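On clarity, I found the account of how folds are encoded harder to follow than it need be. For illustration, here is how one protein appears when written out as sequence plus structure tokens.
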Amino acid sequence: MSLALQAAQAMAALAHKDQKYGEHPYTKHLADVVGVLKRFRVTDEDILTAGWLHDIVEDTPTTLNHIEIMFGRRVSDLVHRVTNEAGVNRKARHELTYPKIKASDDAITLKLADRIANTEESISTKADILKMYQKEYPGFRKELYKPGSHDSMWRHLDFLMSHEPEPFERSGAW
């Protein structure tokens, strides 16, 4: 692992140290996102670095200026593009955030990896959040899909979104 990736991993671990991702330290999610990027053969160090840092501005006191000083303008720009804008609810935040993601193929790559990691985790843990992702998926796809771009990631996410929750999840009862 390069020094930049090691530094990003260490910075993320420190910044997110008290946060949880389900039952796990938050760094599990960040490692999952980087793992998805690597699974889809992303080798660009800036994108992988941004994978470690993609939630840091949204969830911690760390600023984009800190990211730019430590990792450069491109990493800072990627983190900025996937950081949710302020809004009254999740839908409003997405409406404000998706245009800045869509303007960068690398940001789309990063956002797809984030959504794949979250969806895979929700399927493996049988979390109710899968239903939310499935409900918002048509809008997500409509806003970020570009024909001929990121096809393997979109195919995988399409497959994940077709997952049927377990019967007890739908009813909320065993």
User: Anything to note?
Assistant: The two ends are 45 Å apart (CA to CA).
